[in-house]
Amino acid sequence: REARREEARADAATRKEERVRDKEEADQRLLHDQARELEAARAEFLQGRTAANEQGEELSEATEEAEEYKNAAGRFQEEQEEGEQALQTQQEQSRVEEEELETARKRLEALARLKPKHSSPYAKVMHLAGAVFSGFLLGTCLTCSWRMGRRSSPVQHY
Q1: Who contacts 148 (Cβ-Cβ below 8 Å, separation ≥6)?
Q2: Cα–Cα–Cα angle for 9, 10, 13, nearest 5°?
Q3: Among positive and negative, which fits the CA dihedral 59, 61, 64, 70?
Q4: What is the pTM of this model?
Q5: What is d(CA 137, CA 134) in angstroms, rounded to the nearest whole number?
Q6: Residues 155 and 148 sit within 8 Å (Cβ to Cβ)
Q7: What tens digit of pLDDT does each residue of 72-109 get?
């Protein structure tokens, strides 16, 4: 009886040791699985953080690009306003020049009315008299040269 008790105690102790060993192995497997899950979660977290950093950089670049477009739009609007102002100034100058030309035209018309016209009868008579006198002088010169050419001996002056 005592031997059976000893044997039963030994079997119980062995089963207890096996249960403890099985429990320790299960705990070790559980710890190992948890460590792998933790490492996988850590890797996933690092990937997520890297992706978030990349998205943050992309967002930053997009923000900078949007700011550049905004600045370019502002410069374009300023240039457009400057162009419109220049056009208005040029139109104003053109209007002033047109007014000055109109004033000058009116002055010339007024001066033309004040000056004597060359088509007056007196001017025509003077023009005709000058033409007749010029013709007379030319005819005289031609006649003298012709007569000089007909003489065989030179003219003797006494």
Answers
A1: 155
A2: 85
A3: negative
A4: 0.37
A5: 5
A6: yes
A7: 999 999 999 999 999 999 999 999 999 999 999 999 88
